[in-house]
Amino acid sequence: MHFDVFNGDADGLCALHQLRLADPVESTLVTGVKRDIALVQRVPLDASSATVLDVSFEKNVDAVRALLEAGVPVRYFDHHFPGDIPAHPALDCHIDTRPTVCTGLIVNAVLGGAHLPWAVTAAFGDNLIEAARTAAAPLGLDETALTALCELGTLLNYNGYGAGLDDLLFDPAILYRDLSAHREPGTFIAEDPAFQSLREGHASDVDKAQALTPRIEDDTVSVTVLPNARWARRISGVHANQLANAHPERAHALLTEKDGGYLVSVRAPLTRRTGADAVCRQFDTGGGRAAAAGINTLPEADVDRFVATLRDTYAR
Questions:
Q1: pLDDT for 122-144, tens place per residue?
Q2: Is 75 strand, coil or helix?
Q3: CA–CA separation, 147 vs 263, rounded Å?
Q4: Is 251 helix (H, G, I), strand (E, B) or coil?
Q5: Which residues fall within 8 angstroms of residue 126, CB to CB, at 6 or more apart?
Q6: Can you say how many angstroms the Cα of residue 266 is from the centroid of all Cα atoms in its chain?
Q7: Residue 316: which pLDDT band, with cuts at 50, 70 and 90?
Q8: In 3D, which of 9, 296, 286, 297 has the Cα closest to residue 310?
Q9: How many Å apart are CA 84 and CA 57, to the nearest integer?
Q10: pLDDT band at 107, cuts 50/70/90?
């Protein structure tokens, strides 16, 4: 049995959809909320093969090694910091950590642009607005069509945020099955009820988030605290992107209250898409990529140190 392992956000969904449009395979899906990245360990050692998309190689390296040692071929696509990648004839890695690249764009390159609209959707979902527009150039889309792909990417990404599947509007595995019925994003937007449900949920959560006042806000950083509520966990990542787009010269951090501390989303300034992963990796459960990263649990006692680290990183 083949296993498809993917991040439950827009990038993971659209990357897998491109691959399976080009190469249909009956598979078992392994996914979860956006921050649930230790996914490869769920693949059994008697699997026939596995494809992994948009989850950190570094966080899954032991599970990948175990599969390879059991004779399971692994194909890996990602754009996060990978750590040391073992050399193995059964490991096919496509990893690019440049801050203007997402997994959907990596898959698109491998497929030679066969399903480019989905790669553009993935890039929009990862808030790579200029990269998405550049990638879309061969499609010759007008502004209305580009805006539709941007909205779809944003909504798919929004659905991935939460502490658990109960926070999400759709289980990402179910959402992928919905997407897989559509060769083009336009038919999903026009015909699938899931799109309207995502649009309505997103609009409601955005209204609540925009009513919040940042706890810290200056020329260098902005820090906003969100309540311990499902809507807040759902909107945290997308709201961080919206703040980054509105104030591209600042670093932005959203701290969502949870038992034992905070769930943290960090966005580097769009004018210098670096350092977010370095900030978050200084704290237990932290990780991500240069432009966007997070911490799964930041204890209350570490908040001041986190803010100081964020400020020091971007005051240079």
A1: 999 999 999 999 999 999 999 99
A2: strand
A3: 30
A4: strand
A5: 9, 10, 11, 102, 104, 153, 157, 292
A6: 13
A7: low
A8: 286
A9: 9
A10: very high
- Distance, in Å, from the CA atom of 61 to the CA atom of 75, rounded to the nearest integer, reads 13
Positive or negative: CA dihedral 262, 8, 93, 118: negative
d(CA 220, CA 316): 10
Q: How many CA atoms lie within 13 A of 199 on its CB side?
A: 13
pTM: 0.89
- What does the block give as tokens for 153? 């990417």
Look up residue 286 and give its two tokens.
């932290």
For 10, the enclosing helix (H) or strand (E) is: helix 10-22
DSSP 126: T
**With the C-alpha atoms ordered 169, 103, 91, 282, is the resulting torsion angle positive or negative?**
negative
H or E element at residue 256:
strand 251-258
Question: Quick one: which of 61, 68, 14 has its CA closest to 40?
Answer: 61
Note the pLDDT of residue 289.
Answer: 86
Report the candidate in 273, 254, 272 with the shortest Cα–Cα distance to residue 264: 254
Residue whose pair of structure tokens reads 């955005």 in the numeric block: 206
Calpha distance 101→128 (Å, rounded) = 8
Q: Report d(CA 193, CA 200) in Å as an integer.
A: 11
Around Cβ 25, how many Cβ atoms within 10 Å? Answer: 10
